[in-house]
UniProtKB/TrEMBL annotation:
Name of the featured protein: Mannose-P-dolichol utilization defect 1 protein homolog
Membrane association type: Multi-pass membrane protein
InterPro entries with a match to the protein in the record: MannP-dilichol_defect-1, PQ-loop_rpt
Keyword Ubl conjugation in record: no
Transmembrane stretches, start-end: 87-105, 112-132, 198-218
Sequence similarity: Belongs to the MPDU1 (TC 2.A.43.3) family.
Subcellular location: Membrane
A single GO cellular-component term on record: membrane
Length: 235
């Protein structure tokens, strides 16, 4: 088996260059596969919320904090000159997450001045980061991303447990979130070698697995409207 892998590595090095091997090729394939999958990652969730006109069991605060985390990952990857294959999905997930956040806020009657004020502050922070934060600053932001991603998952988990229902949460999206974060553990080890980023994806994988487990605990059963968290009652 080792001899076969050695022969494959030799072919890869001859074809692509001396720095390449089978594990790097797999990592690149996984990385770009994640990016391709991210183009539609949140679409099932967006369509489910839009068609039902309900945000049952979805947490707006969780989505908002997730957006901040993906923004940090995107800006840090770009400014630190990491391979695009190791962070590119952040851009596409971020755009979809904004659409999802707007839908959740709309159906919970919270799409108001507070949101637009926060959006303006967010845009200003992104501009400042791109123009005034150095590499050390982005490495610090990546460290702050770890507790941020942890905190971002808690409102969603708590909302599901309180409702005893996954509500309008999409199983496909949650499954792909877990698969993507697990794959990112491998690509980070192979291509980035940054323990902070690796820890972030490791914790993300653990928390995404908890959310997926809750699908099997609560299934798709509904909860009476008066007990629902993260939605509004409709007439």
């Amino acid at each position: 088996m080792e001899s076969v892998i050695g022969q494959v590595n030799q072919v890869i090095k001859t074809t692509l260059g001396p720095e390449w091997d089978l594990s790097l090729l797999i990592s690149k394939a996984l990385g770009y596969g994640i990016i391709a999958g991210s183009l539609l990652l949140k679409v099932p969730q967006i369509l489910k919320v839009a068609s039902s006109k309900s945000a049952e069991s979805l947490s707006a605060s969780s989505i908002a904090m997730e957006n901040i985390g993906f923004t940090i990952s995107l800006l840090a990857g770009y400014k630190l000159l990491n391979p695009f294959s190791t962070y590119g999905e952040s851009a596409f997930i971020l755009v979809q997450n904004f659409f999802l956040l707007i839908l959740v806020l709309k159906y919970t009657q919270k799409l108001n001045a507070v949101f637009f004020t926060g959006l303006a502050l967010y845009a200003g922070a992104v501009f400042a980061a791109l123009n005034y934060v150095d590499n050390d600053g982005f490495n610090l932001l990546l460290k702050l991303n770890i507790p941020l991603f942890i905190i971002s998952k808690f409102p969603q988990i708590i909302t599901i447990i309180k409702n005893k229902s996954v509500g309008q949460l999409s199983f496909i999206t949650c499954f792909l979130n877990l698969a993507g974060s697990l794959a990112r553990v491998f690509t980070t080890i192979k291509e980035v070698n940054n323990p902070v980023i690796l820890l972030s994806y490791g914790i993300g994988s653990f928390l995404n697995s908890i959310i997926l487990i809750l699908f099997f605990v609560y299934g798709t059963k509904k909860v009476p409207a008066r007990k629902q968290v993260g939605t509004k009652k409709t007439n």
